[in-house]
Design goal:
Elements (H helix, E strand, L loop, with lengths): L1 E2 L8 H5 L12 H12 L3 E8 L2 E10 L9 H17 L3 H10 L10 E4 L12
Antiparallel strand pairs: 1-2, 2-3, 3-4
């Protein structure tokens, strides 16, 4: 399992956007945090994970309001911003937005909830 941070180079968003010509607003940190708190009452962590050559967005069981959470609010928002930037550059903001609002599952200790981020083959050279 490999985590994907800011591995997508600048300018690649135009190449990777499968919905060119279909304008959808990009996701923003405030929107995602608000959705998480509305749906589940806490600010869950989001991670990008590469597994078996596929890219997933995972809603983790750890959350900002936990005493044991390793990040403070500023670091959490910066991390979330990096994850959201990758999603936006892939042109999948609307897919993730719909998933966040429609998802009925709740992460449990040791069990994240995942969304397969379906991309075209141009991402293959960046995902091992």
């Amino acid at each position: 399992m490999q985590r994907l941070g800011s591995l997508i180079p600048d300018g690649l968003n135009v190449l990777l956007n499968p919905q060119i010509g279909v304008p959808t607003p990009p996701l923003e940190v405030d929107e995602v945090v608000s959705c998480l708190k509305e749906r589940w009452g806490v600010s869950y962590d989001l991670q990008l994970v590469v597994r078996e050559g596929r890219l997933y967005l995972q809603l983790m069981w750890a959350y900002l309001e936990q005493q044991s959470f390793p990040l403070d609010e500023r670091a959490y928002r910066l991390h979330l911003g990096e994850v959201i930037e990758v999603v936006n550059r892939l042109g999948l903001a609307q897919n993730v937005r719909e998933w966040l609002f429609a998802n009925t599952k709740k992460p449990r200790l040791g069990k994240a909830i995942g969304l397969h981020l379906k991309t075209d083959n141009r991402l293959d050279e960046f995902v091992l």
